[in-house]
């Protein structure tokens, strides 16, 4: 089998799948991928790959945030080992992947996408929430330990920063005082000690410890005695920091170890899913489908194609064997596609045993062969001093010994490479012997004797690859029941060979016309049988058409039911709109009442807030026009965006329409328009999702405008001040950063003009300095 896998180039298929996996562990696992023989196991693997292909088309690939072999890290922790900070970051990404896959599964369920295999895998995951939270507290996205990892670490690092500040301050004093004795005014670190660069001839004039010199020897690096104790203290703090980090990593490693078994199980499942989705991506690339499988010795391939052919157009073929006949003998000219056809049948038969979808129609069915044995190509061996014939025969002997009742045997140019009379006799004997072992056999040959053998046999059929004698080119189409012809005489006549020579050749060729007469008779019988099968097929197509008509009727009924539901939902939407209009009228009444008296700032803010909430509610109630709604030129429609009626002038690409509103013409998308109803002046809305609109009670005291554009920042500022007034806040902070000053200037201009602002100032030293503006609001 290993030799057949190589001959059929199955290793190239696996390489293509490996390229589509994301984890290194998955790529290694594919190298050890085992061939399956159990039909139930194969059916499950095919269904899982098919399901993944659907998910890739309808959604996207399942989440996978890590890349390293976290299995090794988890296993190390389970044995008492400790992970590094960088490794802990990968473990965190692994836990994020588990969480993301639960969310991915939830999305599938919300969208009613059936994925039983994916669901079965993901629901076995264990997600340690508290562990993941702890990892996020400890490590930042760059793999550095955070100050917040522990209170002790935070205090140590604060002490380190204070100590470094003292050292630098002291060294700056020395640099200023001893500048004439230095080669530069830069502070550097040597042997984990802060040092200054002193001229070599002045090294004894600066009291301290020398920690080395420059390559030129002109500079020596001196640790002044004035900072020696500070350096000692700093190094002691750094050692404390390392000990605390080691303690933290040891603590988290122990927590990983406590659930290592569950995490390793999830890791193995993610590797499996990575391989399954890799198979699915490759299936979509080659337009592969899930065939039916059987154990009854039947191989029926409809429109099958070789997955590795790198040509613009691959000619699909139908191959049937096992139901009416046990063997196929394919004859015809060279370069006609006989060998490619053998490889296609063998490769597709192997692919299903590895859970791979195959490039053929879904109604195809493939026998689960225990072995696919192939002798294809020129096996001449100089090293072993074997001729082509000897090499082929050696392979055939191995195949004969290995073949069983459940095997598929593929033989290319059977009996070639020796005397035609002996070669054809040997080919027939080998073919008959293999048939006696009850296996399925497909062979290619040039020998006419094999064509006659096929005619005389009840369970063997002739086949050929079609050749166009007009263009002198093969069509690569397999013709079952029709033997191949060399067409040598026809081609010779077309190419201008002397008619006298051709006639003499014809007289020699047709001396054995009796044999060919019998062959022709059998060919006619087989043709009639094929016609009978064709009639059966047409009858099935007729029945199928009737069933499709019934399904169309049922679909129309469902459409009518759906329209009735939508109509009812629209009526409910109208009621909701009426309710919103009542709320707006109440708001306008409140505004009129406010005109009659002095208005306080918080009342204006509250009114604005109510208006925004009503506006949001109205927007929430509107849904886009259903995709199935049809519009045509000349129809009256209502445009949601413009709040006006118009007439459709024409339909454009991508669900766009040109609509005339008064004297103007606008282009809008389908979801922005709806049918206008006679006598209706209101907007017709589709059912809304039920959303609760509660008044905002908790208002933030800080607004961060960093990274926002000018207009975006201005809108956010106005809303923030309104919310602050509504929330009865006395003081708020606005972070605008330093930058170019454009956002800061806009903020200050707005605050100067606002009647609700008592005063404002830049933030103090502990409030963000000139990057923050502190605002006091009027009470």
Helix and strand topology:
Elements lengths: L1 H6 L2 H9 L5 H8 L7 H20 L11 H9 L6 H26 L5 H7 L6 H10 L12 H27 L10 E3 L2 E7 L8 E6 L5 E6 L3 H31 L1 H26 L6 E3 L4 E6 L12 E5 L5 E5 L6 H16 L11 E3 L3 E5 L12 H15 L4 E5 L8 H17 L3 E6 L2 H9 L3 E9 L4 E8 L7 H7 L4 H11 L3 H83 L5 H21 L14 E4 L4 E8 L4 E6 L2 E6 L3 E3 L26 E3 L5 H17 L4 E5 L6 H12 L3 E6 L9 E6 L2
Parallel strand pairs: 5-9, 8-12, 8-13, 10-11, 11-12, 20-21
Antiparallel strand pairs: 1-2, 2-4, 3-4, 6-7, 13-14, 15-16, 15-19, 16-17, 17-18, 21-23, 22-23
Task: Please tell me about this protein's structure.
This protein is an alpha/beta fold. It is extended, with a radius of gyration of 41 Å. The longest helix has 83 residues, at 513-595. It is built from 21 helices and 23 strands. The protein has a six-stranded mixed sheet with strand order 10-11-12-8-13-14, sandwiched between helices. The protein has six domains: 2-128 and 259-285, MutS, DNA mismatch repair protein, Chain A, domain 3, CATH 1.10.1420; 151-248, MutS, DNA mismatch repair protein, Chain A, domain 3 (Orthogonal Bundle), CATH 1.10.1420; 292-495, P-loop containing nucleotide triphosphate hydrolases (Rossmann fold, 3-Layer(aba) Sandwich); 512-617; 624-684, SH3 type barrels, CATH 2.30.30.140; 702-777, Ribosomal Protein S8, Chain: A, domain 1 (2-Layer Sandwich).
